Amino acid sequence: MLLAAGRGERMRPLTDTTPKPLLNVHGRALLDWHIAALQRDGVNALIVNTAWLGDQIPQHLDAYWPALADAGRLRYSHEGRDFGHALETAGGIARALPMLGEAFWLAAGDVFAPDFVFDAGRARAFAASDDLAHLWLVPNPQHNPGGDFAFEESAPASGTGRPLNVGKDQPSAFPRYTYSTIALLKAGLFRAPWCDIAPGNPDGVAEPLVALLRRAMDAGRVGASLYEGRWTDVGTPQRLAQLNAEWMVPLSRC
């Protein structure tokens, strides 16, 4: 599932006329970079949620990825059309859950991570585990110096371990990292006791994901990996401009 419903307030005025995930990095929309990587790694069934300027997203993607669209492998959850607003991450996933499998990839449409590998072996191992989520964490960028989660690394060779529900104002013996907004999730995370949104979110409840993740962390049901490849949260016009100036990535890579 690719998240593409947000308003992108900090990206204004660019997002007054263009959804943030359709902003270009080196001639390709942010969403297209993700889809290219997913296709490269064998993920060929996608759900995209929409809200702000939502009609633009299927218009663009169906034209850019006609084989996926024609095969019915590119589907949409139209939160704006159905409810008049975006449902935030947990609410949006709950809404799309009937279209998703029991385990699935999640990626935010406003991050640039062209070299991230959507590893099929990792996805299979996750599906067979008791974990409800597996997050990829990145070194803290300048705009988030305190990070999001403490991280207890259990396998240094592979950079895997457990994220910890430790607040930014709480001491921790473990280093803190930023959530990349790329994850593997299970449908069970969006059911009781972790989530109280009705199946399919028929009432359009808007709810963030972080509270569900913290509950599951406290129960030892969330894993994490460190990702130290290229990654940018394209949250402001300045970051977008800097990214286009610095990351000279050949389009032929994907």
Automatic annotation (TrEMBL):
<dbReference type="InterPro" id="IPR050065">
    <property type="entry name" value="GlmU-like"/>
</dbReference>
<dbReference type="GO" id="GO:0016779">
    <property type="term" value="F:nucleotidyltransferase activity"/>
</dbReference>
<protein>
    <submittedName>
        <fullName>Nucleotidyltransferase family protein</fullName>
    </submittedName>
</protein>
<dbReference type="InterPro" id="IPR025877">
    <property type="entry name" value="MobA-like_NTP_Trfase"/>
</dbReference>
<dbReference type="InterPro" id="IPR029044">
    <property type="entry name" value="Nucleotide-diphossugar_trans"/>
</dbReference>
<dbReference type="Pfam" id="PF12804">
    <property type="entry name" value="NTP_transf_3"/>
</dbReference>
<keyword id="KW-0548">Nucleotidyltransferase</keyword>
<keyword id="KW-0808">Transferase</keyword>
<feature type="domain" description="MobA-like NTP transferase">
    <location>
        <begin position="2"/>
        <end position="110"/>
    </location>
</feature>
<keyword id="KW-0460">Magnesium</keyword>
